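Tokens as discussed.
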């Protein structure tokens, strides 16, 4: 189970980083300039996404710890499988919010959330 979560987490992190590594520096600079001009609606979309993602991360951690405590608890095991299948949806949503992904503040917050999941799974 731990390996499954680790795999999902790694896939999510890789999918988040793939687009950024493919772009050349000039295009990244243009996007950064556009990000600075992003209106409040887009910023609130980014904040809303990260708030929702943080709630999901917290849910994953709680369920994961319950499964670790009692691996025979089928209800929590099923919940864990359900929440981990949502990884690709979160990755797609993050990629669709390119202004967020290219904004240093939002990217840093996303990395912190990913680190929180990884830390919880390595304990």
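Sequence:
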């Amino acid at each position: 189970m731990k390996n499954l979560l680790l795999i999902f987490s790694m896939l999510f992190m890789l999918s988040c980083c793939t687009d950024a590594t493919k772009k050349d520096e000039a295009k990244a600079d243009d996007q950064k300039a556009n990000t600075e001009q992003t209106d409040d609606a887009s910023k609130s979309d980014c904040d809303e996404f990260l708030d929702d993602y943080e709630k999901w991360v917290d849910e994953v951690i709680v369920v994961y710890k319950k499964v670790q405590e009692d691996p025979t608890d089928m209800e929590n095991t099923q919940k864990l499988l359900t929440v981990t299948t949502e990884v690709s949806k979160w990755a797609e949503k993050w990629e669709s919010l390119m202004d967020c992904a290219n904004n240093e503040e939002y990217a840093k917050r996303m990395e912190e959330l990913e680190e929180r999941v990884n830390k919880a799974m390595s304990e």
